[in-house]
Amino acid sequence: MTEMRKKMIRVMDLRNLSAHTQRSYLAAVTGLTKYCRQSPEKITKVMIEDYLLYLKNKKRIAPASCSSVLTGLRFFYAHVLGKQISVDFSLTKKPRKLPTVLTKESASGGENDLCPVKSKTPTDPDDHLCGGLKSRRDDAIKARAYRQQTDVDQSRRR
């Protein structure tokens, strides 16, 4: 084991990093040195950027994984070698799809009702409820009636 590797493990132990984090940081530095075939002290910013592009484009590693590799390299250079590296690497963020928000009209059973339920009687007060909600409500009413009946039966037994 090289002196730099021992020093990195010692620094990570002192900072109480988890075993998984230690393995990933060591793998990041090892991968960089194998790719560049040089000591980490001699590796430049451009070489690090080339390595990250190699991981992303050739190895097809996810951008988040490339970011964790960069975090390991930053840790190594900052805490073991005492140098700061400034690598411009950003994740390509996919636009998030926002959930559909109901308007007051659609929530109250207006013309844009999401779950129209046709009732048999036009004056049904539960016209605005979906079939699933009606069945859940009916199940709750039945369960309450059953509990009340069993309570009455138990009081009669006493």
Task: Explain what you see.
The chain has 158 residues and is an all-alpha fold. It has 2 domains: 3-80, Tyrosine recombinase, N-terminal domain (DNA polymerase, domain 1, Orthogonal Bundle); 121-158. 59% of the residues lie in helices and 0% in strands. The chain has helices spanning 3-14, 19-36, 45-58, 63-80, 104-107, 131-157. The chain is elongated and about 85 Å long. Residues 110-114 have low confidence and may be disordered.
Draw up the topology in text:
Blueprint (H helix, E strand, L loop, with lengths): L2 H12 L4 H18 L8 H14 L4 H18 L23 H4 L23 H27 L1
Helix pairs in contact: 2-4
Give a brief description.
With 158 residues, the chain is mainly α. The protein has helices at residues 3-14, 19-36, 45-58, 63-80, 104-107, 131-157.
Give the class from helix and strand content and strand pairing.
mainly alpha
CATH superfamily descriptor of the largest domain: Tyrosine recombinase, N-terminal domain
Number of domains: 2
Cα Rg: 32 Å
- Describe the largest sheet: none
Q: Judging by the overall fold, what is the CATH architecture of the largest domain? A: Orthogonal Bundle
CATH class descriptor of the largest domain: Mainly Alpha
Rounded to the nearest angstrom, the distance between the terminal CA atoms is 80 Å
Taken from the alpha-carbon principal axes, the silhouette is elongated
Please give the share of residues in helix. 55-70%
Write down how many β-strands occur, each being a DSSP E stretch of 2 or more residues. Answer: 0
Strand content: under 5%
Q: Indicate the low-confidence ranges by residue numbers.
A: 110-114
User: And the CATH topology of the largest domain?
Assistant: DNA polymerase, domain 1
What's the average pLDDT?
Answer: 79
